[in-house]
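New to this. Explain these tokens.
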Amino acid sequence: MAINIEEEIRVCKQQEGERSPMDSWWQSINDMCVPRNAYITRQSTPTPANEYDQIHDTTVIESVEGLSNMMTAQLTPAGQHWMLWLPPFEFEDDDEVVEWYAKCSHRAMRLVNQSNFAVTVSDMNLERASVGTGTLLCYETGNQYAPFRFKHAPVGTYTFDEDLDGRADAIRRKFSATAAQLVKEFPDGSFGQKVNAAIADSNKKHSLKFTIWHVVKPRTERDPSFSDRKSMPYAEFYICEDDQNLIEETGQWEFNAMVSRFQTGADDSQWGVSPARKAMPAVAQANYLQIQLDILLDTQINPRILAEAGMVGEIDMRPGHKTLTRAGALATQGGGVREWLTGGNYPMGKDRIADKQNQIRKLFYHGMWADLARVEKEMTAEEVRAIREQSEMLFVGVNARFEADMNPLLSTRVFGICLRAGIFPEPPRQLLKESNGIYNIPDPQTSYQSNLSRVLMKKAVENSDQFLRRLAEIAAVQPGVVDEFDLAVHARELGRAFGFKAPFLRPAQDVAEALAKKVAMQARAQEQQEALATADAAAKFSPGVQDKMMEAAPQL
């Protein structure tokens, strides 16, 4: 089906207009929280602007960056294998399939850690903490050694559609590019009159910018029996608004964007709700109070002066110098020169600012990422641990939301790219499923092994530990009760909760084989002991009896 360029541009502009109220709101948030990214409704300038001049209290800047860094370090820690693929439920008891998916996830995570994922996800988390919505795109490169690259789409440059489950399934992104950039990005692209004119003009080739719309959406009409790019499940194309022409049309097997919301509200808005949005009243008050305290200190250092009319000379504020007044003015009630309106309660203002700063920090889960040096000195280690655990439990919902948003990108997009690039070992035959003459492998389930996921898992293990301590007390009275439980499974889950993985955790098949060998060795040792005992006993009888006993004894 041919792409209707006019209709696509109309839809892009319509959705952009519907987003404009959010643009204004995001601009006001970034003005105070992330000034370096405050270019949503205003244009950036070649020279740095004075974005920070209006900020007098930096608590929210510290909090946004602290929460963003915490999410990056705790949810997707760089260099670690924070994700494990598991088979679909129908294969969960098939050790060969389980091991295959585990090997695939190990290879995929190694490639993810070698890519630019950590950098782009950090940018995305900064927007999740500030404006509440962050977007990440995953492109297929065709290179087996670097099969994908990631790109962050700044908020205010895109719109997206949702399915009935609230997951993004289409994205429309706007960006600007010079003619030279377009030629490099689309070497086989079709360019219009204006772009071609800029390409031919050396003065405009690298300076004149054009508006480009990048669209990815489900393909409504396709033939599944074909595997060319224009028959893939998702259509992807680039349109130049200036020339009203289609630069390139391609396709994707999976949706290549992840739109993640920090939290969502009940206001029927598809955009996320951030801690910064909830903290803005306290941010404004803290900023205003800092201004007032600065004014108070300034007036106390350089006090206002009240002087009577008819003074002889000018007021001289220099140390050791004189100010002349009329004769007898100092002896007159209200006469002469004196300080005026310099009073104020500085300690009370500081306390009020501290209250507002604490409100801001609590909204940003301060207990999870603040370093221990900033904790009150009179607090015990147990109190510090309790504060951190409480913050972690409050973060459970946010963590679940992130994992739900990340699942399609990992279990579908990254898995599909690696599968097509030949990254994975040969799959078990029982996994292959035929459809329309094509063999498919089912997408995996994703289990997160991140730092925060392990923290939450540890809490479940702690509950098991409490039960096992109670079980030990019962076993002291009735030992047989221990046989009701598989303690090896508990030990294995405990190891996983504390971050142990292969080769420290052996595969279940290796454990079973080692146990079988141990049982066989114990059986042979028992037989040898019985044979030696029989031989020792036979030595005490006559030779004829000894022969009969040895014939009946197990052979050594």
Notes: Residues 278-396 form one domain.
